[in-house]
Design a protein that fits this description.
six-stranded antiparallel sheet, signal, MspA, Leukocidin/porin_MspA_sf, Porin_fam_mycobact-type
């Protein structure tokens, strides 16, 4: 017995050949691994702690420098400045008091000479006051008071020249005023020290120094200053440094 031959188109055979491997292939899937927990790095106990700036710290401007006619270079500046506002002892609203500090340095370099350089390093503070009451009368009160008396005669005329009555009277007055003496602002110079030196690198250290002014109304301003002077028998070379202005 013969079985009938089943003829398939060539396209179906080709499609089956291509489909079978694709269906049997497994997709490439990366293995899943559990995530590792992120652990923060422990602080190093041996690391040096970061120091906080002191109370009232002030940023010092760059040093001032100049060159004298005889070839010497002068430099003056400051570092580690502090200007802290404190309550005045008088508790008056017109008083200002500060606690200041800093290191003020000078430097001089120039031609070789037989003797070392010499001079003066002056350090202090300037306090500006918006309205000054220290050189005026300040606040003053004025007042006046008085009593006036009077006496009147009633009922006198041509027919009857004699008075028919007497009318006494008493009056008084009272007055007062207030006067405030104000002047435009002034700058107070407070010199801390004046160091005479022999050498090329003078310095002055100020710590916990308190300065105050009285009779100041409104805003006040404070800044440091340092004046370096190189002296010879025939000349003086002067260089000034001014710190940052702080408003109160």
């Amino acid at each position: 017995m013969r079985l009938p031959f089943l003829a398939l188109p060539a396209g179906w055979l080709l499609l089956g050949a291509l489909w079978s491997p694709a269906a049997a292939a497994q997709p490439d899937v990366a293995p899943v691994t559990p995530e590792q927990p992120v652990v923060a790095a422990a602080a190093d106990p041996t690391a040096a702690p970061v120091d906080a700036p002191p109370e009232g710290a002030v940023v010092s401007p760059p040093p001032a420098t100049t060159k004298s006619p005889d070839g010497w270079t002068l430099t003056v500046g400051a570092k580690d400045e502090t200007q802290k506002i404190i309550a005045p002892l008088t508790t008056a609203v017109s008083s200002r008091e500060y606690e200041v500090g800093g290191v003020f340095t000078g430097s001089m370099s120039g031609p070789d000479e037989d003797a070392p350089p010499r001079g003066v390093l002056e350090v202090g503070y300037q306090i500006g006051c918006g309205i000054d009451m220290s050189t005026s009368n300040g606040v003053s009160l004025t007042g006046t008071a008085g009593i006036n008396s009077s006496l009147g005669i009633l009922g006198t005329d041509v027919i009857s020249p004699f008075p028919e009555g007497v009318l006494p009277g008493v009056g008084g007055n009272l007055g007062g005023g207030i006067t405030i003496g104000l002047k435009p602002g002034i700058i107070n110079m407070v010199k801390v020290t004046e160091k005479q030196f022999v050498g090329a690198d003078p310095w002055v250290m100020v710590a916990g120094f308190r300065i105050k002014i009285d009779g100041c109304v409104g805003e006040s301003f404070i800044r440091s200053y340092a004046v370096l002077t190189r002296s010879t028998d025939v000349s003086d070379a002067v260089l000034a440094y001014y710190g940052e202005t702080k408003k109160v």
